[in-house]
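For reproducibility, we list the full input for the magnesium ion complex.
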Amino acid sequence: MQSPEVPILVKRLPHGEDLPLPAYATEGAAGMDVVAAEDVMLAPGMRHAVATGLSVAIPHGYEIQVRPRSGLAFKYGVTVPNTPGTIDSDYRGELKVLLINHGPETFAIRRGDRVAQLVVAPVTRGTWLEVGELDETARGEGGFGSTGGLAALPG
Ligand SMILES: O=c1ccn([C@H]2C[C@H](O)[C@@H](COP(=O)(O)OP(=O)(O)OP(=O)(O)O)O2)c(=O)[nH]1
Ligand SMILES: [Mg+2]
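The corresponding predicted structure, in tokenized form, follows.
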């Protein structure tokens, strides 16, 4: 089955003019890999908002989520601290990829490297209905491990 496609307006900024647009690496990929538009030396523990050289206009009712690439996280400890980053449909500034280096070594980002992936997603907005009492449930106020630890559930 074909996935629905959402057209997104994209503008290349001067420092991103020669770079490829974010692209799906395979037919079934959920995210488009996005490349860095700058060189960055990311020392251990440091963060950086990596330029992509792109600004976008996402249709109303959609967002773009900026997610880490698992390969960078697993091999180097380099990930997105605000994952999933949110690109609002009304944002017209440069799309940036926030990265943090949790690894022990400086991570060199070269212009053109695929640093994260962009997932286009529908947005569901809520409205508040204020009440005095909420309905009772079996869970109630239990949370944060209330159902037990890592072992399988009994039975
Ligand atoms: O990884 C990200 C996250 C955000 N943004 C841009 C697009 C987004 O629409 C805007 C605001 O993001 P967010 O709402 O997460 O940040 P905030 O700290 O709440 O800032 P603001 O007060 O501007 O909403 O910043 C990025 O370019 N990359
Ligand atoms: Mg915000």
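The helical segments are 70-76. The chain has a mean pLDDT of 96. Both points were considered when choosing residues for closer inspection.
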